[in-house]
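Protocol step 4 of 5: obtain the predicted structure for the target chain.
Materials: sequence only (see below). No template structures provided, no constraints applied. The aim of this step is simply to have a reference model before the mutagenesis design in step 5. Sequence pasted as it appears in the construct record:
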Amino acid sequence: MVETTDADKVVEEHEGAVPEEDAPGDSRRKWYLIGAGLAILALMLGGWYLLRDDVTVSLPTASDPTVAAMVGDSKISVAELDREVEAFKSARPGRFEDADESARLRAEVLNTLIDRALIAQEADARGVTVTDEAVEAQVNALIDSYGSKEAFEESMGSGPAIVDALRGKYRTDLLADALLRDLTGDAVLDNTQRDTKLRSLLDELRAKTAIEIRDKAVLAWQEAGNATASE
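Step 4 output (structure tokens):
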């Protein structure tokens, strides 16, 4: 059974005052290493994903309102971003009613989707795949950990957006695992080594990939001084 106190700790980091290290304009990076089974906020922004305030942002070159970001040739749609954000909010009703917190959440979710796209692109380039069955096994294991589907939905929320968000998170987790095995020759890595390798890989992928944020709400939040674009 999930310990709600751990989940609340994660949510509290996204509520109330912004910690000193996350003050507007600070480009330092924050990592969350949260295991499966916590609240949807921890699950989707957890794993090994870097919540970046230092994404390289170029001004939109197109006015397509349906595109939230371009990652190389891949599009992240506004609809996909909206679904992921709503999955967070439905899991924690009333937690993101503050306009600034809601905008920050949207920016962090978009950056998580960018990292997912980078991992998917690298996996495709290396011929690394995961099966739908493996993804569903992870989702079902999480649901089973609550004892029943009803208990899961009471804690995490109900609706297809929640499960779809989990599928996206677990697919990327599995792809990241497979990529690291490919890069290290199946070497056995402890959690610290695995995290360090993935940080390095994501840094490398971001450095060589053109990333253009187009979502108007995220751009407005960044332009208000809430994030520092790296050069």
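Step 4 remarks: The chain has nine helices and five strands. The radius of gyration is 17 Å.
Proceed to step 5.
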